[in-house]
Amino acid sequence: MRRSLRTKLLAYAAAGLLAAGLGAIALPGAASAHGAMMMPGSRTWLCYKDGRTSTGEIVPQNPACAAAVAQSGVTPLYNWFAVLRSDGAGRVDGFIPSGQLCSGGTGGPYNFTGFNLARNDWPVTHLTSGKTIEIDYNDWAKHPGTFSLYITKDGYDPTKPLAWSDLNPTPFSQVTNPPANGGPGTDDGHYWWNATLPSGKTGKHLIYSVWARSDSTETFYGCSDVVFDGGNGEVTGVGNPVTPPPTTPTTGPTTSPTGGTGSGCTAMYNVAGSWTGGFQGQVMVHAPAGAAVGKWTVEWTWPGSQTLTQLWSGTATSSGSLVTVKNASWNGTIPAGGDTTFGFLGSGTTPTTVNNLTCSTA
């Protein structure tokens, strides 16, 4: 893989590093931010919520979310916070082509094109026109910058591809460096600010979010489907996924995650990126639906001669091919049915699966 892509992947891996247990390595480039709208929820965020299961597998129930996965694969749902362009520099119309607004074009690290699909059945947030609400934007990684929210014009048709001409050209809300609660590196951590919704709106609309970092050219884009019907932030269209029984991990393509069971929690391994001689992986740790987790330990063995070179959002030790990862001080507690994620860099041939993946609360 080209060196420029390797550099980009390494830069993403450095986002919000909470490295422990292993010596840090020097990474080229600036650390990458990550985030997405949580209220009103973006398509990637709500489809991620729609498809979560206790095993860590993401199986969308919403038909639009399932169609997005059919086009783009499941990897975007494990990276719901990464609809970005590293060269965006806050640019909108004239930079992102019409019809590709929800994916941020095609120049980002992941394929989000399935989220451009013109459909009337995406998960939707119910709102009241003219009301002041709290906007929540996930801060998977924190960075200074400006958030701008645009809304569709009257007469918007969700069954047609979203074009720049469908949006009012002036943001109805714009804020720089808002406060944050919780995070980084969690589902719940978020920036927040109060915004007054446009008055006179009825029926279905779309809120388009742009987060332009001030310390780099990296820019995030997102589509949030809303309906103005007197609602107060209720979300519909997010299903109740059926939890499949635990299965023995099998080898598959890099876009297919590997699941692991254990005592009191489950873990899911996924490849986030790879290059010649190295790779980036991530593991999602899930608490069972009926019980919270107070601390967790994930273990696996490499299928070959791979080695762990860096890890964040946890503490790691290695002994031969065995890797043991324990929670960091801030992400050990997982509510019932909830999850947390840690990531890492490895050297060697990219493993599409790992062996003996287990999770325990010991």
From TrEMBL:
Alphabetized PROSITE patterns for the sequence: CBM2, TAT
Location of region: Disordered: 240-261
Chain ranges of the CBM2 domain: 258-362
SMART domains, per database record: CBD_II
Signal peptide location: 1-26
Source superkingdom: Bacteria
Sequence ranges of Low complexity compositional bias: 249-258
Swiss-Prot/TrEMBL keywords: Monooxygenase, Oxidoreductase, Signal
Classification via Pfam families: CBM_2, LPMO_10
GO molecular function term, any single one: monooxygenase activity
Name of the molecule in the record: Lytic polysaccharide monooxygenase
Protein's organism: Paractinoplanes globisporus
